[in-house]
Design goal:
The complex is a heterodimer.
Chain A: E1 6-8, E2 15-16, E3 34-36, E4 74-80, E5 83-88, E6 98-105, E7 108-115, H1 123-138, H2 151-174, E8 185-186, E9 188-194, E10 197-203, E11 207-212, E12 218-219, H3 226-232, H4 237-242, E13 253-254, E14 263-268, E15 273-278, H5 280-283, H6 289-303, H7 307-320, E16 327-334, H8 341-347
Antiparallel strand pairs in A: 1-2, 1-3, 4-5, 5-16, 6-7, 7-9, 8-13, 9-10, 10-14, 11-12, 11-15, 15-16
Chain B: E1 3-9, E2 13-14, E3 20-30, H1 35-39, E4 44-51, H2 59-74, E5 80-86, E6 90-94, E7 104-105, H3 108-119, H4 129-140, E8 148-155, H5 164-174, E9 179-185, H6 191-200, E10 205-208, H7 214-226, E11 230-238, E12 244-252, E13 256-257, E14 263-266, E15 269-277, E16 280-289, E17 298-308, E18 311-322, H8 326-329, H9 334-357, H10 361-377, H11 381-388, E19 391-395, E20 400-403, H12 409-417
Parallel strand pairs in B: 2-18, 4-5, 4-8, 8-9, 9-10
Antiparallel strand pairs in B: 1-3, 3-16, 5-6, 5-7, 11-15, 11-17, 12-13, 12-16, 14-15, 17-18, 19-20
The chains are: A alpha+beta, B alpha+beta.
């Protein structure tokens, strides 16, 4: 089979024909295309998100009249049975500036979420390019032998490389827009799960949570945000997150990023549970790790065990809360923990 | 082959909590061809009903007979046709009552003979229009292959030989079987009666003041009928689950509320009759109540479609988008505003004249005053000039008027029959 590298529209994700200058789907210029190895995921069905009815040829539900989501506005990915996510426009925003890219590095799940800065035009192009480029770096995996104690460090280093690749991809995707006073930019958050090890890397306020079935859930990432700086100054989380500067991120990806080296943090799963990577469109309605764990648990009761179904339920719930921002939720299920990293070291 | 196009005029932005979506949908048909061309295959039928009651004696019957002959000249060869004389009973004038068939196809011989038959019609008896309509229906039913059926009804008097309910009952029974334009000559007929006929049978109502004008009117009516190449189109309105269709109204060329004419296509879609189409444009006002959605949400509020022979030819989308931007939500769409005003104008005129006839001068003054105001606001100069013959206008903008003491009956009737005629928005 020939290895075909397709070119996808940075705005809506539609795969373009060779030589096209504009996207056939959305008309966005393709002068600075994003290269992807595979076409973007097709929308799972043409059924209505709101009522489950059929979407008519005119783009609206035959039963309830809800508009069909475009591919860029709403999509889901499920690269394996234990890994899945949904990226959604929400209600209040005109565009979906969130992006998500999931993949597998061998057996190791890779989850990337980028949240385009909504105050800056064309950040939807930046976020999609960044998420896919980072995912494509991460799925190459690491060459450290299984069981080696330096695996976590190697993943952390790869996360740094992934952020760098994402930043380059943004530059390519936005082209001349990078020269603008407010160049397209986005947050970056990624998690890889290697056996019991969960390694997170981030720039900005998109988050990784580790939600074990038993034991204390934690937010693995730590927001680069005004809210966090305020909390560092002693404000309560509730007050800090409600403040005007709460959502001002202090680090990001894009031409005007002050620093593109993500902070990384590992944890070790002691038992089964969920890794959740999400944008603030979700956690704005449910921030504390314990509340997030409870929400995922109740969502699982509604949606069943499939991660993309649970993610869809989380998105539905966030829209029900108002859908004030774009919403992305990506989940990986750690079902069986084959010993801890320490035990692994001993056995090898 | 006829093509239909739709265009939607609306402000789709709704403020938070708002539920009512209004839109004007312009439906344009092109390439409808002519019924004349179709008539060669025998799919078109035309019946002329002429009042032959005793009151027609004199210039009226002579003018009516001449007009019927002009109509016969206009009917294209191949068209099925018949002439009916109506009094307290209805009788076929042509084909002759003793003829073996009730309706024939037009050809030069039939045209000559029909005109001779018309010349033999003579006025006698009373007026029971239900019998005319029922006979026309019976005659049309002889030619089921003629899908496009049109009739003209001419009278000069009230429907005095039968209870009013008989006429209404006949109208209900023949509704959907053929279209009918109704014409009153002189000032002694009842506008409400002819409006009921024309309204149900998807035709027009008009007053002919001078008998000598009947012929030209008939010529135009038949010509219009012969130019319609689409026998029957229906307007379909889909509204989402949980929504309510507040009304469906034709607003141009004349106001006609179609809401009660709904037949179900499926639980979410209703069909409303529109009759035959030539190359023309009509405007429809559709109002839908949808459950309110959060600010930022979009919702399809209606699909407005034209279907011919059960096939949807065009579909227009009426949308709702909730926004907290009052600059967007406060805008009133000019087409919606215009036709809302024109529909209210029609009611104000009709209610004002009805109040005047009932001797309620206070209500009549208020209603006709409002009509003057609306006619001015919507730029309906024809309505303004007709109103001037019935009221003295003190202040057009405020709608302050006095009823004219010496208003002519004919002028009141002209105002009444023309009340539903609308002007189009200047675009």
């Amino acid at each position: 089979m020939d290895h075909v590298v397709s070119v996808a529209c940075g705005s809506c994700g539609t795969v373009a024909q060779d030589g096209s200058k504009f996207c056939e789907q959305c008309g966005a210029p393709l002068t600075a295309p994003v290269a992807v190895a595979v076409p973007p995921p097709a929308p799972s069905t043409r059924s209505c998100r709101a009522c489950g009815g059929t979407i008519a040829a005119d783009g609206y539900c035959q039963d309830c009249g809800t508009p069909a989501a475009t591919e860029r506005d709403h999509w889901s990915e499920a690269p394996s049975a234990s890994l899945g996510g949904v990226c959604d426009r929400g209600i209040r925003h005109e565009k979906n500036e969130d992006a998500m890219a999931l993949g597998l590095a061998g057996d190791a799940p890779v989850l990337v979420v980028c949240d385009g800065v909504s105050s800056v035009p064309d950040s939807d192009i930046a976020s999609l390019a960044a998420a896919r480029a980072a995912r494509d770096v991460l799925v190459q995996g690491i060459s450290v032998p299984s069981g080696d104690t330096t695996r976590v460090a190697a993943w952390s280093a790869l996360l740094v490389r992934a952020a760098d690749a994402a930043n380059n991809a943004i530059a390519t995707a936005v082209g001349d827009l990078a020269e603008r006073h407010d160049p397209p930019s986005c947050t970056f958050v990624a998690a890889v799960v290697d056996g019991p090890n969960v390694v997170a890397g981030w720039l900005g306020d998109s988050r990784v949570y580790w939600l074990p079935d038993a034991g204390d859930p934690i937010q693995l990432s730590s927001d680069d945000s005004g809210a966090n700086e305020l909390m560092a100054l002693g404000l309560s989380r509730a007050k800090a997150e409600a403040s005007a500067q709460a959502h001002a991120i202090t680090r990001w990806l894009g031409a005007d990023a002050p620093d593109i080296v993500p902070r990384t943090a590992p944890t070790v799963a002691q038992g089964p549970g969920w890794v959740l990577v999400c944008s603030d469109g979700l956690w704005n309605y449910c921030s504390e790790a314990s509340a997030v764990a409870e929400l995922v648990r109740t969502s699982q009761e509604v949606a069943g065990p499939a991660p993309e179904k649970i993610a869809a339920e989380l998105v539905r719930w966030a829209n029900e809360q108002g859908g004030a921002d774009n919403i992305t939720a990506a989940l990986h299920r750690i079902e069986v923990v084959h010993g801890t990293a320490t035990v692994d070291t001993v056995h090898s | 082959m006829a093509e239909f196009h739709t265009e939607v005029f609306q402000n789709e932005f709704l403020s938070e909590g708002a539920t009512d979506v209004h839109a004007i949908v312009t439906v344009t048909s092109t390439g409808a061809g002519t019924a004349g061309a179709a008539s060669a295959t025998g799919t078109v039928a035309e019946i002329v009903m002429v009042d032959t009651s005793g009151s027609m004696q004199g210039p009226n019957i002579d003018a009516a007979k001449y007009a019927a002959q002009v109509a016969v000249d206009q009917i294209a060869d191949g068209t099925w046709f018949a002439i009916i004389g109506g009094s307290h009973v209805a009788q076929r004038a042509f084909p002759y009552p003793n003829a073996p068939v009730a309706i024939v196809q037009m050809e030069p011989g039939a045209r000559r003979e029909a005109k001779r038959a018309i010349s033999l019609m003579s006025p006698t008896g009373g007026t029971a229009m239900s019998t005319w309509l029922r006979l026309a229906d019976q005659v049309f039913s002889q030619v089921p292959q003629a899908k496009q059926r049109h009739a003209i009804l001419l009278t000069d008097g009230k429907n005095e030989s039968e209870p009013r309910e008989e006429l209404s009952k006949a109208i209900r029974d023949v509704t959907g079987r053929f279209q009918c334009d109704a014409r009153g000559v002189g000032a002694r007929w009842e506008v409400a009666e002819l409006r009921e006929i024309a309204s149900a049978l998807l035709g027009t109502v008009d007053l002919i003041a001078n008998p000598s004008d009947i012929a030209e009117d008939f010529r135009q009516l038949v010509a219009a009928s012969m130019s319609k190449g689409v026998a029957d189109a229906e307007l379909r309105v889909w509204a989402p689950q949980g929504a309510q269709v507040l009304f469906v109204r034709r607003v141009a060329p004349t106001v006609e509320d179609l809401s009660t004419r709904r037949t179900e296509v499926n639980p979410l879609t209703g069909a409303y009759p529109t009759g035959a189409w030539g190359d023309e444009a009509r405007d429809y006002h559709v109002a839908i109540r949808v459950p309110s959605k959060p600010v930022g949400s979009e919702q399809l509020a209606a699909r407005v479609q034209i279907a011919v022979g059960g096939e949807v030819l065009t579909s227009a989308l009426v949308k709702a988008r909730w926004s907290d931007d009052s600059a967007l939500t406060a805008r009133i769409n000019p087409e919606v505003a215009h036709y809302t005003g024109q529909a209210e104008l029609a009611s104000a005129i009709q209610e004002g004249l009805a109040a005047k006839a009932a001797g309620d001068e206070a209500t009549a003054t208020v209603k006709l005053g409002r009509a003057v105001q609306l006619a001015q606001e919507t730029g309906n100069e024809e309505a303004t000039s007709r109103l001037r013959r019935v009221v003295d206008i003190d202040d057009e903008e405020k709608g302050t008027v006095r009823l004219k003491r010496d208003a002519a009956k004919l002028d009141e009737m002209a105002l009444d029959t023309a009340s539903t005629k609308t002007t189009r928005v200047r675009r």
